[in-house]
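Suppose a colleague, Dr. K., hands you the sequence of a protein chain of 392 amino acids and asks what its three-dimensional shape might be. Before reaching for any lab equipment, you can write down a predicted structure in token form. Begin with the sequence itself:
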Amino acid sequence: MHEPVPAAASAASAVLTLLVPGEADGEMREVRLRYVDRDPDVYVLAPADPLPSWARSLRAGGSARWRIGDRLFSGQALPLSSDADTASGLVAELARQHGEHRVRSWFGSRPVAFLLRSQSVRSLSLSSLMETHFDLLAPDYDRRVEANPLDAALRQASVRALLRAFRPGDRVLEIGCGTGLETLALASAGIDVVALDLSQGMLDRLREKAQGRGLLARITPRKLRASDLGALIPEFGRASFQGAFSDFGALNLEPHLDAIPQDLAALVRSGGSLVLGIWNRTCLAEMSLYALGLRPRRALARLASPVPVGLSRFGLPAYPYAPGPFLSAFRPAFELQSLEALPLLVPPYDFLPHVPRPDRVVPLLESLERPLRTRFPFNRLGDHFLATLRRT
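The predicted structure, expressed as tokens, is then:
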């Protein structure tokens, strides 16, 4: 609908990247759009029939975030569908650049116009991009997880592993807490959690949920990304945690893990547990399903590092890891206790639209994979691997 174009297109018809929530939880979709700059506002067009999902999102939400070059904008999206003169003027401006036939093929004969009015702007960095991504997801994150039985099964297995590793009265460190799907389960079991996340939106949602359940005394939220763990050592002291954990993606969004093992070794006391749920480099189910669907580029996507946006579910560049090289970075301070594929035969959660009768299929596949999850080589072929390590 909108052809890929270089960022260096002319000012009248350059490209902006609109950030909108995707269908799966944890997913942020990027939509590249032609725009017309009428400083301080910008305008985008969409075909009216059918109206694209990103345009429906703008019409429903009223707020928007977008990128132009190295700047990130936050503001309002104002539908101008009743303003035919504005839409016609935008079409004419684009047609002068690209020709009437091409513009008509993009937008149809009666396009819908949106005004994007900026309220704030900041220079982009990887941290700000990730923070924006998860801030946008925070309000609807829990509903997305709870509505997806594939994701719910993943979280339940993770909580079971964490409750085996930690005991009531322990103080543990969580890296990438999100809205607290694991945090609250541990706090309910009498475990104190220092919960880290780089998204203030996610932390605000966690605090709200913890307060509503009377668990805030057991949870200490901190706005911090994984690569900055060393900042906790002066605050809490060395060997101040009985354990630590990070589940399902937080470490896969870090381009550099060099300092993380040594910082965890400083923070976790001898005999403590470290539980890591890591997006795996080789996923048997995903590779098989995409190969059967004749989509080799997606089947082999995880062999790249990072996996580009659009070829993973993250909506950000993601770094998959193979268990062997990843875990070797934690030796000799930590030794491996168990390694589990999670899940192995159950499809990754972004496959939900393609799973018939998940209420029946998921329990069946879980029963088949359960004896295999911890056995070599199957424990290295899951969507994620769940590693439990002990501090030496």
